[in-house]
Helix-turn-helix domain-containing protein (Kitasatospora camelliae), 533 residues
Amino acid sequence: MTTPGLPLRQLLMSLGEPLVELQAAPAGLDVPVRDVSILDPEDPPTAAAGELVLAIGARGRAALPALRAAGRARAAAVAVKLDGPGQADALREAATEAGVALLSVRRETRWEHLDSLARALIAGPDTQETAVTDAGDLFSLAQTVAVLTNGIVSVEDTSSRVLAYSRSADSDEVDDLRRLSILGWQGPEPYLSKLREWGVFQHLRGSDAVLEIDAHPELGIRRRLAIGIRAGAQQLGTIWVQEGSQPLAPHAEQALVGAARVAAAQLVRRRRELSADVRLTQTLLTGLLEGSTGPQSLATHLGLDLRRPATVLAYSAAPAGGLDPELSRGEVTGLISVHTAARHRSALLAPIESRVYVLLPELPPGLPLATLRSWAQEVIAAAREHLGVPLRAAIGSTVDGLAAVPESRAQADRILDAMGRGGVDLEVAALPDVQAEVLVSEVLALLQERGGLRDPRLTALTVYDRRHGTRLAESVLAWLDALGEVRVAADALHIHPNTLRYRVRRAEQLTGLDLAQPQQRLLAMLQLRLPEE
């Protein structure tokens, strides 16, 4: 049997500007929305009558096939993410021609969040009651509590971030605290300060009882009830019920007690699911960085745009101090995560062996290198100040899309490798800063790996020093680095110039080297930089 569906008008009122914005509605706003479908960019564009089609990963002209297919199938609407006003104009024209509504989704919105919310709204109150009984969606629970209490409901976590909310047909019923919380997905700080001052959060942390908060018209706050969502002694969140134009129902407090218990089970289950989601994200991200997994899986999973610029930052312990695996690894990763997320909402972290990689997808075109450098420097300063851990960071190349992310990671690794071999007096480096050092480092790595490329006379010189406690090789290298300036090299070694001249002649006599020959000087400058084996 075909479900009647939810009018597009009501769906838009419930979702509101925090998530979507109407761009075109050629068939009007009374079109029924009966279901939600997700269109993967790798799948052929298809739709069904009455569907809200979530066009994941399709931006700009790439969304045109989805719009045309939705129009042919008499779908209710297509939701896309836009990069700029030029895209909106082209897609609005296409949507009008296809006869299907076009919704633009805010860039920071997670597709799975929009999918869950839209399905709960389309299901309606009757289905929502069943969903609550089965510990279903939090939005269903919020709507059911709104019906039972005659109020306006929101569910928040312990950081006052909005997890779900009931829909309200009359915007005049909603007070400032509710409105600003929904728009920002977090309670505004001035109001939160007042709640802390009144002891509201302290009560919710330590009690299972419902708390009543009086109206404060001067602050734009109406009367509301609140109860902590708890699992044993741990608080998981809060349910808030704001009084609207009608008084709250007589049994509102009792309904809240039951709702808090249902929500606790829901949040515990959600945490388990989130843990599984985090593991999947880490697997896909690690695979992309290592080049063993293509970009499409990660892009689809997280709703990322494959074609937007991306960069990889890599962090590792500085030579001055290693990471204590028992203490620092998790703390450093957490610190990097927090600081990076504050600068780039979509940042993703992947600890791989001794390094921590940060993928910055969907960067704005033309983002200056200086900006990335300052972000990395902030992390290093914070790690030094708060954890006492010295870090260094490498900035990989900014690539044109997710498919080229392994190239950016490889460049960041090359830079860190060069920094690890010494000779780079920087905490944060990009390739333009250390181009020569990186190339010399890689040549040295090749010499170290392939003994057949080394000059045996230079090898014999280092062996002689080790056996006799002399410093001939060090003196030759200092002389070469100073371009033959004896006094400069002698000062660097803190020896007399005549001593340096003697050591260079002695090295030539022992080995048969002729340092007057450019090729022999070049090879000596490289090979004598190898670490002793």
Remarks:
- The longest strand covers residues 234-243.
- The chain has four domains: 6-109, 123-271, 308-444, 454-527.
- Confidence is low (pLDDT under 50) at residues 125-136, 182-186, 321-327.
